[in-house]
């Protein structure tokens, strides 16, 4: 090598082939077109999900059992077909994830227990103040509350309540499937994993603005209170269900509560602990190998911060 001299070294450096992204090697479209395909696919999914809620014409409010049952049908159909959008995206972009579609979407057994427990624990810590408020305002003590929660009759009553099924089961499952499991793999190769994690909730939030028009139409709330509450796979589904149960934190009620100072301390402590524990409890090493990181490596983004 030394005998070649400087010119020989320059020749070798020029002739060495550079590493190409996987999508380019497969003859797929350029990065710009891939991003447009990804964004359009996500918009199509969001519009399809929301549009499925309105295929049934009705003058009844959204909480009427008949409306809920009809929407169950349309939403479950759209959610079941949503993985086909990811398959179509894969064909249009030429990107090969290097893993099965279900694994890429988050359906896997590896790391399932920490994925189910740690995010839910973190979310409950964030809601420490509202949980304290709920316990203070509850007329029963802890023992009586546990008896009610564990009673088969209570669960049977919940399973026959259309609003409970919508808020705690169907909505978390279908929304996380469409707005996270399907959208995240399509956005990550375009924006990177970090921005994609924050972009998916934007689609989710915009898709929920139809609640504003429904609540105004039936005069169920004021404009101000609606905007405060309109925006809000095992881990996200459980956290989503918990947030639906808790609702938007009643900060104003806490300020007027007889025990407002302990409550406000609980609110502050919950937010502080959440920020303190956010990074260690969401460390990817706790949840096994990440299929999305395999996807990013194959598309040439092997230096993703969340994957290192």
Automatic annotation (TrEMBL):
Top-level lineage group: Eukaryota
EC number: 3.4.26.1
Entry keyword annotation includes Transmembrane helix: yes
GO molecular function: metalloendopeptidase activity
A cellular component term, taken from the record's GO annotations: endoplasmic reticulum membrane
The reaction(s) this protein catalyses: Hydrolyzes the peptide bond -P2-(S-farnesyl or geranylgeranyl)C-P1'-P2'-P3'-COOH where P1' and P2' are amino acids with aliphatic sidechains and P3' is any C-terminal residue
Any one GO biological process: CAAX-box protein processing
Entry keyword annotation includes Methyltransferase: no
Annotated CAAX prenyl protease 2/Lysostaphin resistance protein A-like domain residues: 164-246
Residue ranges of the TM segments: 36-56, 68-89, 109-128, 226-248, 260-278
Record's keyword terms, sorted: Endoplasmic reticulum, Hydrolase, Membrane, Protease, Transmembrane, Transmembrane helix
Subcellular localization: Endoplasmic reticulum membrane
Topological relation to the membrane, as annotated: Multi-pass membrane protein
Family of the protein in this entry: Belongs to the peptidase U48 family.
Protein name: CAAX prenyl protease 2
Organism field: Physeter macrocephalus (Sperm whale)
